[in-house]
Structures are given as C-alpha cells and as structure tokens.
Amino acid sequence: xxGEWLDAESLQPILIAAIVALGVLAVxxxxxxxxxxLRLALIVLIAALAAGLWLQRADLxxxxxxxxxxxxxxxxxVPADTNPNC
Length: 86
What we know:
mainly alpha, two-stranded antiparallel sheet, 2 helices, elongated
C-alpha cells in the first residue's frame, strides 16, 4: 500500500504534474543535448514514461467505482467520500 494519505483522487494531479515535468525535461534535453542519437533515445524514454503515467491516470479515474485501485502495481486507497462502498 502506498500510504493512507495517498489516495486515488490526490494522485491524479500529482501524475499530471509529473507529465508536465517530463515535458519540461524533454524541452531542456532538446536544447542542451547535442548528440542526435542520445537526444532521440532520451526523448523516446521520456515519452514512454509520460505515456505510462497518462494511462495510469486514466485507470485511476475508473477504478474508484470498483474499489480496486493500483498505480504501477501498488494498491491505492479509495477515499470513503468518493465511494462509500469501499
């Protein structure tokens, strides 16, 4: 379990912030990394990580109804005010 203070609703803005931070990192890499192959490899890695975060964020929106939320294999608590059946 990730922690009682970390629930499905609070993780969504955190994941959006992480995706934005990855975008900023990608822009910085494009500006400062000179070798094309290294630049391409790092951009692909960042894009894959951002896509994974985006998919996990979408799963968190749907899992509240089933009371079975997981983020990268870790259980996430569902707040009682979101779904009282959990």
